[in-house]
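Q: Could you write out the predicted structure for this multi-component system? I'm mainly interested in how the pieces pack against one another.
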Amino acid sequence: SAVISQKPSRDICQRGTSLTIQCQVDSQVTMMFWYRQQPGQSLTLIATANQGSEATYESGFVIDKFPISRPNLTFSTLTVSNMSPEDSSIYLCSVDRGVGELFFGEGSRLTVL
Amino acid sequence: EDQVTQSPEALRLQEGESSSLNCSYTVSGLRGLFWYRQDPGKGPEFLFTLYSAGEEKEKERLKATLTKKESFLHITAPKPEDSATYLCAVQAGRGYNKLIFGAGTRLAVHP
């Protein structure tokens, strides 16, 4: 299994501001994934982040709203920009260790007022 | 469109009362079906991967099975510590490791 650390674990933010979530993995991985889990709902993939290339965004998610960085094989950030209350969610970082099984971080619980 | 539906949404069991959770799916080119457990305030924890119809996997009180249209997670003689949300996800033939998740089943096991 992989050890995945996310920061912050939770935050309360004001409307219109931006928040950057960090994800650190204990070993090098090719692909990192960012998911969103809205209250009472399941997980939705936001984007896939590969080191050295632009992130690939899923339908309904755009780079201007959710810019992602992937500077090396163990780290990624997701920024939630110009936040509104609808962005209140748990944001989860995950990695695939090469056998098709995803491992998840603890998540970052974001509340936008 | 690829879709995953889990039922029931919520399940309450007495300790020792065995039951099954259902995950039905509609995907083009199933590459794998995954079961995860999620505790409140935590990220999902991987349980099983199933790749082909007829496959079964077991772990302690849990047993996962797969047919061409659905998967079942059987829980035998559950204990209160089995209380969690159980998520099913499928990986379809799109060339990379995107998982499509169901909404989950919230399981509560009471002593």
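A: Regarding packing and overall arrangement: The radius of gyration of chain A is 13 Å.
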